[in-house]
Give the backbone structure.
Amino acid sequence: MNLNEIKAPLEGHMKHFESHFRESMRSNVPLLTTITRYIVKRKGKQIRPLFVFFSADLFSGITPRTYRGATLIEMLHTATLIHDDVVDDSNERRGFFSLNALWKNKISVLVGDYLLSRGLLLSLENDDYDLLKIVSASVREMSEGELLQMEKARSLNIDEGVYFEIIRKKTASLIASCLACGAASAGQPPEVIEKMRQIGEYIGIAFQIKDDLLDLDFSLQTGKPAAADIKERKMTLPLIYTLNKAGYSEKRKMVNIVKNHGTDREKVSWVIEQVRKYGGVDYAKEAMKQYRNKAIEALWLFPEKPARESLKCLIDFTIERQS
């Protein structure tokens, strides 16, 4: 099932959400208006708002608070992408010029800050303290995950335990907050919100492992350059597994390439060959499927209804996507 088919049951809600999102970013500063229009025009798949809406719909509870929760998540996500592009000195995002490529770093950082502040105010103005608490915890974990990854990238000394801690914080925490916000917006008790948050964490881990796998394929148009993780010295699950299986000389050569030759396509291609040879790709695929299955098993504890099936389809889309 493609993403448009998955979105179909929420078509009316998503159109209304887009309008709500645009209105929430409104500013009297002309430059901000120009930039926010550009942001809306180049919006991505909107997977995270979909998780919020399907989570709320699972409990028959899409409300104005659901729209605010989805908007808060999308503002946070957009702000972090803008800041990431500045940190990574990236000039492209999803096939469009990044904000820092068009308006330079200083303006980009300030726009990211503006989006974060608008999200905070949106919650405070409507007394959505529970939603703000959920998302603020995610912001903290994302920051911790990024810093932990940067610290470990210096030495390339990452085992699987550290890897999963990094991606749980850096990637999974935001998707976990999507499902938690959806349930909270539908008035669910803390124990249900926590169960949905856990499902989101499983999904987020599978989502990141899929990103690791996409990064190894030069033939795909993923919206970021192939082998970008190697260039940025990020230790992915397939590479960690391979380094643990390879012989001393091969391991030493791979580490040297990642540390010093990440922009050399020929050398990076050799690293990717070793990852395939030693079963790193197959190992990561199996781990991704295990987390997908954990999410589905936990989701199936809730009563059968259309929103549950839609969530299952969206989970499958996250691990079958090619970008």
Summary: The chain has a mean pLDDT of 88. Residues 3-320 form a domain with the Farnesyl Diphosphate Synthase fold (CATH 1.10.600.10). The longest strand covers residues 92-93. The beta strands are 92-93, 96-97.
